[in-house]
């Protein structure tokens, strides 16, 4: 299959427009087309409506508003000829068979011979959509079902028909993984495929059980979130987020499409949910569903729905005694086993047993109907619903044989192949042999290798194979192979503490003294690095040891300057929150390979401080100094750096981080976060051949007194307008001083160390102020900045 560069998305509804947006995020050129309205002069009225809704959507579909320039809109009457330019044509129109078939006939007439053609349908059989088309069309036609919102949810279900060419299937899967950053699973052409087939069963069965057995909304959400490896949205908050009309609609459509399903009646939405839909209690989109956000006594509150009156009432925070006890059991498997054992004598544990077991058993009865492999079923739930473990991996954690006994004692039917697996002496769905993970195949009754994405380089696997060279409680050094060293932070919250700095220095020493090609700074935590360990900083300062804080600041500065001027290339691989010191680490690397979802910013003002690990210096180097070589006026560039820090701006994506000056043109954006470490490793190897470190000179432009005065006047104006507090002004004054070179009356070029010294002085001065300690205390206690 040829390379996909241009995409035509046919249908600008919620999904079509959001898919178009994500293709644009990935750097593709996109045509977004829809029908021309029967009335009115504007033939693009329908597509414009979809495009504008996409632009306003929250969370944002686009990684940067500038990305929208890659999307051309048009209509099926005037602009259908553009489809001939597309390498991939994706249909996302109304869920009715005849219009889809008619559109496919038009597509076949005009599409390039080697263009991939797909449908995002979830309720109409793919083979029916392709009915009447030529053999050549059918070979390159398949389903590509995205989950909403496509930017954030990893799952991409790929559904071949009996006629789809296998090479096309694998090429689309690879394209989805490498270009769009998705996790591809192969599903069969059955109603609602994998994710929504199993997800609908689980959602409707859980809601029905809760309503029939007197469980409250808050109770269920307290126990069906992170406790069992599910996201914080749990059960009912998830419905509010998705839209109850969507959840009910999917279940009702599925009910009609699966007359042979032995659990069909379980798919029917409970009457309470239907009543909620009729009353427009759909969730966030209508302002209220199971919960309703509001204000009371000046504070944001979330009221909860009374299922008898359908009115929202203040939350009760009911007691769930087993919650704390279960959380103390350890990892996910230990928690789940504890809860299953307690089901007879605890009503909350009983709810989990009586909903999780039917869900796992249902998944076993649907295989191999919906998928040939267990890993694709598990991944569908992990990537589409953000579950830590899919049904079969969960079952393994509980113990397969013991759980089958429990299911049978409760009258829950298990897929016959599970019993055959156990009778054959096999104890688990997955097992490891050497370095290979295997999965049991319900199709051939044997174990087969779990598919390996060659672009994934797992640090845990490197560790498991003896690749860890050095370790303390907060960080590790690992050998990634091919002469590439990795510095991995794994402290609490991935924050920077003394032990992180200690191991960072060891990484530098080994890099210089041993035979390494270069260094990757990366990890597989939820976030790359959330900044300094505030508790450690505050504790040292409040103990009166400001000199100790000063030494810690210098140690971090020296480490990061060591990375910057190392004799071998250093590549940072940030993802998720990359804040404060985390951003400073990335900014001192030769190259940044950032995950698309990287939220980068220097946020120290939120705790009454300014960046002191070189972040202020780096923004001058990146935003101000280059412009000064062209003799441009300094103020606009210094103002940009000042606003980034003073307003604690955080990028909403790696693309926005590039626009803010945190990434430059040579840095890379990696759409699939699972590929990040591998991409960074390859970047090190690319740079290593003939590498020369940066020249250490007077490369920082200090703009002097006049620019500093202009910044200070701007702050005063904000204070007069009551947009900034008095103490905001104090912090901003220190920041302005550092950004412009301290007491310099005239602009001049200075070495990096000059600005680093100013950073440290300002940091320590602010730590002497009680208001800074109040801000740090508030952040540690609430996780939110205090404006004092």
Automatic annotation (TrEMBL):
Asked whether the UniProt record includes NAD among its keywords, one would answer yes
Instruction: Spell out the reaction equation it catalyses.
Output: a (3S)-3-hydroxyacyl-CoA + NAD(+) = a 3-oxoacyl-CoA + NADH + H(+)
Gene Ontology molecular function: any one: (3S)-3-hydroxyacyl-CoA dehydrogenase (NAD+) activity
CDD domains reported in the protein's UniProt record: crotonase-like
Q: Gene3D superfamilies from the xrefs?
A: 1.10.1040.50, 2-enoyl-CoA Hydratase, Chain A, domain 1 (3.90.226.10), NAD(P)-binding Rossmann-like Domain (3.40.50.720)
GO biological process, any: fatty acid beta-oxidation
Highest taxon of the lineage: Bacteria
SUPFAM superfamilies xref list: 6-phosphogluconate dehydrogenase C-terminal domain-like, ClpP/crotonase, NAD(P)-binding Rossmann-fold domains
Signal peptide location: 1-20
Q: In which pathway does it act?
A: Lipid metabolism; fatty acid beta-oxidation
Question: Which InterPro entries does this chain map to?
Answer: 3-OHacyl-CoA_DH_NAD-bd, 3HC_DH_C, 6-PGluconate_DH-like_C_sf, ClpP/crotonase-like_dom_sf, Enoyl-CoA_hydra/iso, NAD(P)-bd_dom_sf
Asked whether the UniProt record includes Magnesium among its keywords, one would answer: no
What residues does the 3-hydroxyacyl-CoA dehydrogenase NAD binding domain cover?
7-189
Q: List residues of the 3-hydroxyacyl-CoA dehydrogenase C-terminal domain.
A: 193-292
What keywords would UniProt list here? Fatty acid metabolism, Lipid degradation, Lipid metabolism, NAD, Oxidoreductase, Signal
Q: Coiled-coil region(s) at which residues?
A: none
What family is it from? Answer: Belongs to the 3-hydroxyacyl-CoA dehydrogenase family.
* Official protein name in the record: 3-hydroxyacyl-CoA dehydrogenase/enoyl-CoA hydratase family protein
Q: Which organism is it from?
A: Rubrobacter marinus
Organism lineage = Bacteria, Bacillati, Actinomycetota, Rubrobacteria, Rubrobacterales
């Amino acid at each position: 299959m040829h390379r996909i560069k241009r995409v035509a998305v046919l249908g600008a509804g919620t999904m079509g427009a959001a898919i178009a947006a994500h293709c644009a995020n990935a750097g593709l050129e996109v045509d977004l087309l829809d029908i021309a309205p029967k009335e009115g002069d504007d033939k693009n009225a329908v597509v414009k409506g979809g495009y504008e809704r996409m632009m306003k959507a929250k969370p944002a579909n686009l990684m940067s508003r500038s990305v929208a320039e890659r999307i051309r809109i048009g209509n099926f009457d005037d602009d259908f000829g553009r489809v001939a330019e597309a390498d991939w044509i994706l249909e996302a129109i109304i869920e009715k068979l005849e219009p889809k078939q008619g559109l496919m006939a038009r597509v076949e007439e005009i599409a390039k011979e080697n263009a991939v053609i797909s449908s995002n349908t979830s309720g109409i059989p793919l083979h029916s959509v392709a009915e009447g088309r030529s053999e050549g069309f059918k070979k390159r036609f398949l389903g590509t079902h995205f989950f909403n919102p496509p930017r954030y949810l990893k799952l991409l279900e790929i559904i071949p028909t009996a006629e789809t060419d296998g090479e096309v299937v694998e090429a689309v899967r690879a394209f989805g993984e490498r270009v769009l950053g998705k996790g591809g699973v192969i599903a069969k052409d059955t109603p609602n495929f994998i994710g929504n087939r199993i997800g609908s069963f689980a959602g409707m069965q859980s809601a029905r059980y809760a309503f029939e057995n007197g469980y409250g909304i808050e109770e269920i959400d307290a126990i069906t979130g992170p406790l069992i490896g599910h996201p914080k949205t749990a059960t009912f908050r998830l419905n509010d987020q998705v839209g109850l009309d969507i959840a009910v609609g999917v279940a009702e459509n599925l009910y009609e499409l699966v007359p042979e399903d032995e659990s069909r009646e379980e798919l029917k939405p409970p009457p309470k949910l239907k009543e909620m839909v009729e009353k427009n209690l759909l969730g966030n989109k209508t302002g209220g569903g199971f919960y309703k956000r509001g204000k009371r006594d000046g504070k944001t509150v979330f009221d909860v729905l009374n299922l008898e009156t359908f009115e929202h009432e203040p939350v009760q925070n009911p007691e769930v005694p087993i919650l704390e006890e279960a959380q103390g059991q350890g990892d996910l498997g230990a928690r789940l086993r504890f809860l299953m054992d307690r089901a007879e004598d605890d009503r909350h544990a009983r709810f989990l047993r009586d909903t999780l077991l039917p869900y796992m058993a249902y998944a076993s009865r649907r295989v191999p109907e919906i998928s040939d492999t267990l890993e694709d079923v598990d991944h569908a739930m992990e990537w589409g619903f953000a579950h830590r473990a899919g049904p079969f991996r969960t079952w393994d954690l509980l113990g397969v044989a013991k759980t089958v006994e429990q299911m049978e004692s409760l009258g829950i039917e298990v897929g016959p192949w599970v019993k055959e697996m156990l009778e054959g002496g096999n104890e688990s769905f997955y097992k490891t042999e050497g370095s290979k993970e295997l999965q049991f195949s319900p199709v051939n009754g044997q174990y087969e290798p779990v598919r390996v994405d060659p672009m994934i380089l797992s640090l845990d696997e490197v560790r498991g194979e003896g690749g860890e060279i050095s370790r303390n409680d907060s960080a590790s050094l690992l050998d990634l192979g091919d002469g590439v060293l990795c510095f991995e932070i794994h402290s609490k919250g991935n924050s920077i503490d003394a032990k992180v700095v200690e191991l960072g220095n060891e990484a530098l020493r080994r890099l210089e003294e041993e035979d390494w090609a270069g260094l990757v700074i990366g990890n597989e935590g939820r976030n790359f690095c959330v900044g300094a360990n505030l508790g450690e900083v505050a504790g040292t300062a409040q103990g009166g040891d400001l000199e100790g804080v000063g030494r810690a600041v210098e140690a971090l500065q020296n480490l990061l300057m060591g990375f910057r001027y190392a004799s071998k290339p250093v590549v940072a691989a940030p993802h998720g929150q990359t804040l404060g010191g985390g951003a400073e680490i990335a900014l001192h690397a030769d190259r940044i390979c950032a995950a698309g979802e990287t939220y980068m910013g220097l946020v120290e003002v939120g705790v009454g401080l300014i960046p002191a690990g070189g972040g202020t210096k780096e923004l001058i180097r990146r935003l101000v100094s280059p412009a000064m070589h062209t003799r441009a006026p300094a103020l606009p560039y210094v103002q940009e750096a000042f606003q980034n820090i003073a307003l604690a701006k955080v990028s909403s994506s790696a693309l926005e981080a590039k626009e803010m000056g945190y990434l430059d043109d040579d840095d890379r954006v990696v759409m699939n976060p699972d590929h990040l470490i591998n991409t960074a490793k390859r970047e090190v190897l690319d740079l290593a051949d003939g590498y020369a470190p940066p020249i250490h000179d007077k490369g920082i432009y200090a703009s002097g007194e006049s620019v500093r005065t202009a910044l200070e006047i701007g702050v005063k104006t904000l204070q007069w307008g009551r947009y900034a507090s008095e103490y905001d002004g104090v912090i901003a004054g220190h920041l302005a001083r550092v950004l412009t070179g301290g007491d310099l009356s005239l602009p001049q070029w200075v070495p990096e160390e000059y600005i680093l010294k100013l950073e440290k002085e300002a940091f320590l001065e602010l730590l002497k102020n009680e208001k800074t300690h109040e801000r740090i205390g508030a952040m540690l206690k609430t996780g939110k900045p205090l404006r004092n």
